[in-house]
Specification:
With about 150 residues, the chain is an alpha+beta fold. The chain has a single domain (about 1-130), classed as 3-Layer(aba) Sandwich (Aminopeptidase), CATH 3.40.630.30. It contains four helices and five strands, in the order E-H-H-E-E-E-H-E-H. Strands 1-2-3-4-5 form a five-stranded mixed beta sheet, sandwiched between helices. The protein is globular.
Length: about 150
């Protein structure tokens, strides 16, 4: 198993994995236009890592950098982390986190953040095992712009 950066030839694979995450989270999958925008934005607005087992893609992580004015340091924000269900429990998620933490440290980040759905108990257990702590004093707000 290895974690590697996105390559242009991975476009269909990444969009397929994002669709698999949407199914898992019971959300609408990205439209074809959204899939094209996602691929276009890799390397410009977001970065993507892929996990492969035996050369077969089994998961992905999308991340970007935000900034903490209080720490005066960047934050690695993990937008998505998804491993196909049949490949969970094999260390893929841990390998993603190890790679992302290394990237965050190299970038001088003061922290790493992400969201998790409140019903996703397996993910919450996994994050707690990593030593992550939930932020209970913040409420997420959103304004849709499209």
């Amino acid at each position: 198993m290895r974690i590697r950066p996105f390559r242009r030839g991975d476009a269909k694979t990444v969009v397929s994995l994002v669709r698999a995450l949407a199914r898992y989270e019971k959300l609408m999958p990205p439209s074809p236009a959204a899939g094209r925008r996602l691929v276009r934005d890799v390397g410009k607005r977001v970065e993507v890592l892929l996990a492969e087992e035996g050369g077969v893609p089994v998961g992905y992580a999308i991340y970007l950098f935000t900034y903490s004015s209080f720490l005066a340091r960047p934050t690695l924000f993990l937008e998505d982390l998804f491993v196909l269900p049949e490949h969970r429990g094999k260390g893929v998620g841990r390998a993603f986190f190890d790679a992302l933490i290394r990237k965050a440290r190299r970038a001088g980040c003061g922290r790493m953040e992400w969201f998790v759905l409140d019903w996703n108990k397996p993910a919450i257990r996994f994050y707690k095992k990593l030593g992550a702590k939930p932020l209970s004093d913040w409420i997420t707000y959103r304004i849709g712009l499209s």
